[in-house]
Amino acid sequence: MLASRLAYLFSGRVHYAWVVLAVVFTSTLAGVGVRAAPGVMIVPLQHAFGWDISTISGAISLNIILLGATGPFMTGLMQVIGLKRTILLCLALLMAGTGLSSLMTASWQLFLTWGLMVGIGSVAGAVGMAAAVANRWFARRTGFAMGLLTAANAAGQLIFLPLLALLAERYGWRAVAICVTLAVAVVFPIVAIMLPESPARIGLTPYGSTAMQPPGSDHAAGGNPFAVAIQALIRGSRSMDFWLLCLTFGVCGFSTNGLINTHLIAYCADHGIAEVNGASILAVIGVFSLIGSTASGWMCDRFNPRVLLFWYYGLRGLSLVAVPFTSFDPISLSVFAVFYGLDWVATGPATFALTNEVFGRRDTPVIVSWIFAAHQIGGALAAFGAGTVRSLEGSYLLAFVASGLACLLASLLVLRISRPVPAIAAAE
Hints:
Elements: H1 2-10, H2 16-49, H3 53-69, H4 71-81, H5 83-101, H6 107-121, H7 127-137, H8 142-171, H9 173-194, H10 225-237, H11 240-255, H12 257-270, H13 275-300, H14 305-322, H15 330-341, H16 347-359, H17 364-393, H18 397-413
């Protein structure tokens, strides 16, 4: 196995956990490129087919919902067939969905490809997979590892959005679909060759640990991914903390991928800002989000994640309420991009840290996938709702204010999440 040989070459220099982190980071980049693409395709699809924003937003909403709804079951499948096989399956679905979309001529095909297939395939870079990698490969610096994987979402924006916007402007939406398909195709063999199932499979202990786990411990007993997912949901639903995490992370999705990722470029177009410039603003958000997410992971290893989330949601809410009332000029948008970008995905590592704290490392990957499902429901509501508001009112003002107020409420709710007691937290 090539991964075993690579681990041997790296021994004494760097733990192979960091190589795994780099591989999963790269695969997440490709998935983020796919998920970010609809934001630059809204206007070109309008021009090409005459579809209104609410129709296109509906397909994007389906994508977001499925990413969340299938996440727990795909994470359960990961425990049955393995992490590597599950990620490769998801990447194959992404390639199929984006590749076939280049041939679409009707709106139902948009729902089938960018809605259904991309929605399920995007689980490859979702929080459940990232949590499994962080908990499986890192006994120490788990929060930092999760922060880096979460930061891949920001880096994906930085790398892909300006390029995709330029392609959409010069060559149309089909060029965007082809570009992201090729990106996933490049990543696929890297994952296939360099990602081991677990440290034990290549004779290593997790980073920061001296205890070797048995090779079969990375598979769930019973071999039923649906049972794994449902049992985790039953366990989590008995805790009020689970519902608080779901509600607040739902607000996170409502205020990020559902609103900003999907509609900011169109919002900029309403103010006469070209698509490429609007995508550049999202890229700036991505730059500072990369910094914010990594810093959040580092802080989660040292500080109370409840307090961190209070500040993340509070500051995000203030920025969303304020931006519609600015002059929407380069200065105000730059300030917004920096301020908002720093906590764009910083909530991810903190939510993961809280889930680890309350439910234990063993159960966290599946339980946090259910919490992420709430995130995607919030994102879907914002993607469709903001598009509908724009179609009816001719403005995104109401959508931004509602999202900001929801963030301010979430900042208070996270302080209600209790500290675990031994009976609640699972044995690690």
